[in-house]
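Sequence in, structure out. Go.
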Amino acid sequence: QVQLVESGGGLVQTGGSLRLSCTASGRTFSTYVMNWFRRQAPGKRRELVATISSSGITNYADSVKGRFTISRDNAKNTVYLQMNSLNPEDTAVYSCAAGRDSGMYNYWGQGTRVTVSS
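Output:
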């Protein structure tokens, strides 16, 4: 069992930056594919924002490419999402998910809210 805890959300102005963290319990963190999702409004479809494989290969949604960076520190069991040039459309609850393979989302965090004011 893996437990994920996100942190780092908050209120930021347009053009600002935030760094989200997701820390995992357990000793197998390095083997998981780690993902960041966001849901911009209740009832709206959840969007896969960024993914990082166990070997460090990254992928991004077109909506955040060039502005967001996903990284991981296996020694700290933590995955990060550096978010720059934020705009109001980035306002959402951001959640991390761990998967045993690409496209699998076996464990989820509770989410952290990001609000970007105009």
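Check: The CA atoms of residues 9 and 24 lie 17 Å apart. The chain has no helices and eleven strands.
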